[in-house]
C-alpha cells in the first residue's frame, strides 16, 4: 500500500488524497506538519532532501516527491491522464503552469494570511502576490471561456485536480473569485465528480486569521 | 517543422535548442525578447495567454507552452526520457523541482543582476534568493554524491537538460558553484554529450552588469 506523507490543509498534499480516493486506491496517510518543522527533521530529510510534502513511499521504501509528478505516476494508465502524446503534454503544460504561475502566488498568499503572524513582514508582499495570482486566474478563465470544460482535455483529470487544489481556496488568500464566472462553474463541476473529497478546514487559529481583512 | 519562440539567453528557452539539436531535429527559431515586452503583444498573447517564452508552434498552428512540458513532448519515445513509469515519474519530479525550487531563485537572481537597473529595488531580494538557490544546489549535490551520474536515470536525459540550463550560469546570479564539486563534474559531463550546444553570451550591456559585484 502507498504511504502519503502530507499536511492535510496543503492543497499540494490534498491533490493526492483526491486522486487516490477517486481512483479507489487504498493508501495510508501520515500527517506531517510542514508549518512547524516536521519536514526538516533528519528522518524526513533522509527520505526527501528537499524537505517538502507531499511525498509518497512504496512498501519497498522507494520515494517519489513533487505533487504533480506523483499525480502523473498515479494517473498513468487511468482515465485521469489520457490522450495522445500531444494531449498528455498539454496536461503537463498546465501542471507546470500551476506550479510556476499559480501556486507561488495563490497558495503563498493563503499561507501568509493564515499561517504567518499578524505582524509578519511577509504580509507586505500580499499586494504583489495578488496581482500575479490574478494573472493566473485570468489565464484559466480564458481557457474555460474558449469552450473547454476541463483543463485535462475532453474529460476531468489530473490538470483539473492540480489547478483545483488552490483555486478553490483562493478566497482564503484574498482573491475575489466571483470575478471569474467560468472558474466558479468549473469548480462546481469538479466538486460533482464521483468520489470527490474536500480538503479539511484549517485549524481554528488559522481560520480566525484567514477571516480577518488584510 | 517546429517553430520555437524564445529569448536566446533564457535558460528555459535554451533547453529546447539543446534537446532539439541533440535529437538532430530541424527547427525554426524565432527570437522573442521577453525582457522588452515582446511576450506581451496582442499577437503573442493570442498564442500564449500566459505571456511567456519558450513556446513551440507546429505547422498546423497548434501551440505548446512551458519549457519542461515541451521537453517531455520532444523526448517522448527517445533515449532522453526512458525507463518504466516509476523512472519516468522520477524525471518529472526533477523537472518540477527545477521549476519550483531551483529556477525561481537561481535564474531569477541572474535575471535581476543582469537585466535590472543597478538601482532596482529588486536587488534587495538577492540575499534571500541566494539562500534558497543554495538549498536547491545542495539537493542536487547530494543526489550526485550518492553515486548517481545523471538526474534522468541511468543515462543523460531531459532532467539533466532542465537542471543544466540555469546551473551552468548560476555564477552569473552570484552563486559560487565551486562549493559543489559533484555539480561541477556533472556540468562537465553534460557539456561533453554528443551535439551539446552552449547558450549564447548575454548582450554586452547585460554582461557588464553581470560582471559587477552586487
Automatic annotation (TrEMBL), chains A, B:
It holds the Pfam family GST_N_2. Residues 1-82 form the GST N-terminal domain. Residues 84-214 form the GST C-terminal domain. PROSITE patterns: GST_CTER, GST_NTER. CDD domains: GST_N_4. This is Glutathione S-transferase family protein. It comes from Lysobacter arenosi.
Amino acid at each position: 500500500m502507498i504511504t502519503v506523507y502530507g499536511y492535510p490543509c496543503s492543497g499540494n498534499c490534498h491533490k493526492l488524497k483526491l486522486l487516490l480516493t477517486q481512483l479507489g486506491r487504498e493508501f495510508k496517510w501520515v500527517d506531517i506538519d510542514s508549518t512547524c518543522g516536521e519536514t526538516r527533521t533528519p528522518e524526513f530529510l533522509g527520505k526527501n532532501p528537499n524537505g517538502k510534502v507531499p511525498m509518497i513511499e512504496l512498501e519497498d521504501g522507494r520515494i517519489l516527491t513533487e505533487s504533480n509528478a506523483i499525480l502523473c505516476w498515479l494517473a498513468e494508465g487511468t482515465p485521469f491522464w489520457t490522450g495522445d502524446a500531444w494531449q498528455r503534454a498539454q496536461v503537463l503544460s498546465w501542471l507546470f503552469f500551476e506550479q510556476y504561475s499559480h501556486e507561488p502566488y495563490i497558495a503563498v498568499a493563503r499561507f501568509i494570511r493564515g499561517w504567518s503572524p499578524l505582524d509578519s513582514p511577509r504580509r507586505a508582499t500580499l499586494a504583489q502576490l495578488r496581482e500575479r495570482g490574478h494573472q493566473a486566474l485570468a489565464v484559466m478563465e480564458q481557457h474555460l471561456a474558449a469552450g473547454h470544460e476541463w483543463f485535462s482535455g475532453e474529460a476531468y483529470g489530473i490538470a483539473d485536480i492540480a489547478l483545483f487544489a488552490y483555486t478553490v481556496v483562493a478566497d482564503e488568500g484574498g482573491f475575489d473569485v466571483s470575478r471569474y464566472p467560468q472558474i466558479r462553474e468549473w469548480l462546481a463541476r469538479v466538486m460533482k465528480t464521483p468520489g470527490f473529497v474536500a480538503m479539511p478546514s484549517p485549524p481554528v487559529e488559522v481560520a480566525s486569521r484567514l477571516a480577518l481583512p488584510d
